[in-house]
């Protein structure tokens, strides 16, 4: 059995990253999962500076002291041109990038998915139409046994307790919801909609046997691979 801590939409907040690392040590987790929107809301050079001069060095030092694995994806507010910084860190053994990849870890698989449905926002690097997302998920479903896989989607499933905007509308993905309902993954982790838990009153929801989670951007979720214990940390 493995123990995980999940965080998403940290948006370059040093306080939130440091809190995540402290929780990871305190909770004796085996791995940290970071679900996208990792950099500050800023231009490409500023995001690159954050990755090169804070995040990667900080995670390098953390990994030297603690044998805790790190799995990470970008989100829609991260410029994809800076992926090479994460890829270089992966070659160094600091972290593992997970978008459209499968990683085996202590009896389960971990797969990430950065893409979201179209938005009115300016950054379009990680946007795809629903039919494109649906095609991607068919590919991912063949890479591992979904029932033994942790899926880290940046976008939540549509019209659920996990994708509720401030105005009450939903902003998730239909394709992701269909995938969860049909394939019944072990657990799915989401983000993107920071306020959803506050609006719906729920940070997790069950679809058949699948547990789906969106903690928002300033909360952390600790869980084990057998789903015996799932706890929200603030």
Could you characterize the architecture of this molecule?
The protein has helices at 14-26, 44-65, 83-91, 130-141, 174-183, 196-200; strands at 3-7, 31-35, 69-73, 96-97, 102-105, 108-113, 149-153, 187-189, 204-207, 210-213, 220-224, 230-233. The strands form two sheets. A six-stranded mixed beta sheet has the order 4-3-2-1-11-12, covered by helices on one side. The chain has 234 residues and is of the alpha/beta class. It starts with a strand and ends with a strand. The protein has one domain: Metallo-dependent phosphatases (Purple Acid Phosphatase, chain A, domain 2). It has six helices and twelve strands. 41% of the residues are buried. Helix content is 30%, strand content 22%. Helix 4 runs parallel beside helix 5.
Average pLDDT taken over every residue: 97
Tell me the strand percentage band: 15-25%
Output the radius of gyration.
16 Å
How would you sum up the global shape? globular
Q: What is the β-strand count?
A: 12
Distance between the termini: 24 Å
| Major pleated sheet | 6 strands, mixed
Q: Give the total of domains.
A: 1
The spatial strand order of the largest sheet comes to: 4-3-2-1-11-12
Helix content: 25-40%
Note the total helix count: 6
Assign the CATH architecture.
4-Layer Sandwich
List low-pLDDT spans. Answer: none
């Amino acid at each position: 059995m493995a123990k995980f801590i999940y965080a998403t939409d940290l948006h370059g907040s040093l306080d939130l990253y440091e809190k995540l690392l402290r929780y990871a040590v305190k909770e004796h987790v085996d791995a940290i999962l970071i679900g996208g929107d990792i950099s500050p809301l800023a231009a490409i050079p500023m995001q690159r500076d954050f990755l090169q001069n804070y995040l990667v060095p900080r995670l390098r030092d953390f990994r030297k002291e603690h044998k805790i694995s790190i799995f990470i994806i970008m989100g829609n507010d991260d410029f994809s041109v800076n992926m090479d910084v994460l890829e270089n860190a992966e070659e160094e053994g600091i972290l593992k990038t997970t978008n459209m990849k499968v990683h085996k870890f202590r009896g389960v698989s971990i797969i990430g998915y950065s893409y979201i449905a179209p938005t009115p926002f300016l950054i379009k690097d990680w946007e795809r139409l629903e039919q494109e997302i649906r095609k991607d998920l068919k590919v991912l479903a063949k890479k591992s046994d979904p029932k033994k896989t942790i899926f880290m989607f940046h976008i939540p499933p549509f019209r659920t307790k996990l994708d509720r905007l401030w105005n009450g509308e939903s902003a998730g993905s239909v394709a992701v919801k269909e995938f969860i309902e049909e394939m019944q993954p072990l657990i799915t982790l989401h983000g993107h909609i920071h306020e959803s838990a506050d609006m719906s009153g729920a940070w997790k929801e069950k679809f058949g046997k699948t547990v789906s989670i969106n903690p928002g951007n300033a909360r952390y979720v600790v869980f084990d691979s057998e789903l015996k214990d799932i706890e929200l940390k603030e």
